[in-house]
Amino acid sequence: MRLGALEAGGTKMVCAIGDEKGNIFEKISIPTLTPADSMPEMIEYFSKNNIDALGIGSFGPIDLHESSSTYGYITSTPKKAWTNYNLVGNFAKRLYCPIKFDTDTNAAALGEASFGITKGLDASMYITIGTGVGVGIFVENRLLHGMLHPEAGHILLAKHPSDTYAGKCPFHDNCFEGLASGPAIEERYGAKADTLADREDVWELEAFYIAQALVNYTLTVSPKRIVLGGGVMHQKQLFPLIRAQFAKMMNGYIKTKELKNLDYFIVPSSLRDNQGILGCLKLAESALKN
Ligand code: ADP
Ligand code: ZN
Predict the structure, then answer these.
(1) Residue whose CA is at the smallest distance from ligand 1 atom 14
(2) Helix (H, G, I), strand (E, B) or coil at 25
(3) DSSP class of residue 162?
């Protein structure tokens, strides 16, 4: 099988060719400009590679309900050029192959569950903490969609009593993304997040918010393992801080083998930034099977 994968992000479009076994033959990256600027190059790339199917993991919100009249659209995204853009339809018109569409973070969750650190588990989550916060949920061996798709980067958190920062999200005063994304850290401290590595207070507060979110996810979704990725998680000192705060907040309420070993339960991504593309290859494979 020759499969196409597209990880559609707000800053770049990563396009790759690979197979259902998780081999990536080649990969290119195109800046995310307007559809008129970015689409022709992507269509040309997948056309010349003679793919059998395409899997797309996209920034959102998106419409992924196949019965909907706007299926395959990027819908109410704040990235104006892409608002209400028929992404799947415009590929379908030119590629003549099956296409499967999901969120970028669901694709990453599927990549990890198929080839990475959550392989073999029927319930897991992937969370990216970068420019935004996004959450992919793999539960009972499939990606969770529900009404729209999870938008769990915007769950509301209790603010730390010492935190006077107003939050970065235009919709919520105290959501996870607004309090803990890379841009939130940068605005709160007035410095690039990667220059703050030595500031213990920065990562203690960051861990306080991440741990709260993970407790809420654990109690709601009941994942068997949680993977954390994205630019902010390059600060590896966060992992022990998050695990310690998580244990404190959970306060012994759940006593599963997974939660007895938080070094196992809360882990970094294992696929060196290929989790999204690998998930897209699996989406492409399932498009072909359908
Ligand atoms: P995106 O979310 O745009 O796909 P990233 O996951 O790389 O991209 O996230 C970018 C954000 O992560 C930026 O806000 C940046 O400040 C932050 N970031 C990137 N690298 C680091 C780092 N080493 N330490 C802390 N924060 C980082
Ligand atoms: Zn929000």
Answers:
(1) 182
(2) strand
(3) T
Q: Is the CB of 189 under 6 A from ligand 1?
A: no
Please, are residues 103 and 111 in contact by the beta-carbon 8 Å criterion?
no
Contact (CB, 8 A) for 87 and 101? yes
Report how far residue 122's alpha carbon sits from residue 83's, in angstroms, rounded to the nearest whole number: 34
Compute φ and ψ for 30, nearest 5 degrees.
-125, 135
CB of 228 sitting under 6 A from ligand 1 = no
pTM above the 0.85 mark? yes
Residue nearest to atom 9 of ligand 1 (CA): 130
Q: How confident is the model at residue 77 (pLDDT cuts 50, 70, 90)?
A: confident
Beta strands in 106-256 (DSSP E): 123-129, 133-139, 142-143, 226-229
Closest CA to 158 of 211, 227, 90, 95: 211
Look-up: residue for tokens 């993977």?
227
Is the CB of residue 8 below 6 angstroms from any atom belonging to ligand 1? no
Mean pLDDT of 173-192: 98
CA–CA–CA angle 108, 114, 115 (5° rounding): 90
Ligand 2: centre distance to CA 153 (Å): 7
Q: How confident is the model at residue 112 (pLDDT cuts 50, 70, 90)?
A: very high
Query: What are the C-alpha distances in Å from 149 to residues 68, 136, 251?
Result: 14, 9, 30
Please give the single-letter amino acid code of residue 125. Answer: M
